[in-house]
Fold:
Amino acid sequence: MNESQTKLTAAEAKGLRTAKELEAHLAWLETFTPAALGVLAIASGIYTYLGVSSLLEDTGAMSFFAAVAYSVAVSVGIFVFWSYMLRLMPAMRSAAGFIGLSVSMLVGSAAIIAMSSWLNAAALAGSAAVEQHLDTTVRDYQAALEQAHEIALSGQALGREVQRAKEAFEALAQQERSGELSGTAGEGAVFRVLTQKTEELQNLEEQISEQKPLIDSAFARGNEILGRMRALTVAPGPVEQRSVAFSEESVRLAGVIANLNQYSVAPLVARAAEDLPASVVLPELDGRNSSVRDAQSSTIASVLNALDQRSQTLRRAADEVLALEPPQETAYNPISSADAVIRYAGNFVPSWAGAIAIDLLPAVLVFVVAITQASIRSGRDGLSIEETLTLADLKAAINAMKDVEASMGAADKEVLRRVANAETSEPANLNAAE
Structure:
């Protein structure tokens, strides 16, 4: 090998220096990497224990040991898995091997998230997630209460339509009494028909008015319950205890909303509108002669036509109220901290990020080491062993050669000694034999 073949180019020398520098850094980093992995695995195990404990209903010794066993298994699994990846992934030289280990790492990461990360998130944000569930339930109940109250008030607005119809028939009755309708003054058959319908509408108006205090009282009581529920949402103390009191208040509020739904008078007005023209009791015509009776019959027919029109008007108004969307049925369902974290994951992105990062942070280290090892191999590719030797490597090789030479010299001396001893002992043996 001539001098031109053994001399390194500037690029090769730079790559070799970089490779040696990176190897020195890796050697130093590997002194504490296992300890760092152990700390991350233990931290994840602790939060996993807290998450498992929140799921177990029993608080006895068996549940304690079950939670400890699960958290220890998670810690050991995380440590072993990432130790494998840190050792094997950077050593892969082929694309097939690198891709295969990458797929394995993705599967393992998904398994770690499934068995640990969501429990870590439950430990980090479980109480806040349950409070979020309480707050969401309060908003649902408030919307249902306000909608039920709005429908009930819309029903009360039908009272004005009923009052207008009553006043119209009452005015017609007064006109009939003075003889302006049928032409005959008095309280005859036409007057009695008008009075009958006026009384029916009067009774309906009174029934509608009687519901107004009940609606106001129910709405005020519902708001009081909502106030207590909001206070429980943000009150200090364990959220599990607050959830029990919250559940009791939600049952009371559900009853108030059900009562408000029943206080709506729209169905009552709709039935009364149908009965208004159908329930007329026609009296016997009491005119003195046939011309008067004919006038009474014609007036009664006009009254019935007016009744039918008023009935349709009331029916349309009642149908508009009945067409309003009823409040959505709301019920409070107690939820565990782990389930709450999953359901409201979008509200706790930082907690989820921290829970996943503590488990998957070693994946970044795996890729860092893999990239560094690839850079080291790139700096050493194409160079012979002699070209990659450092001064320390050369000194070690020289010392090793000296040790080998010393060992070989000692062996040669031992052989020579034994040969010499054999040669001196042979004449002595011959003399003895003579």
User: Anything to note?
Assistant: The CA atoms of residues 90 and 373 lie 6 Å apart. The chain has three domains: 7-124+350-383, 129-336, 389-422. Confidence is low (pLDDT under 50) at residues 1-6. Residues 389-422 form one domain.
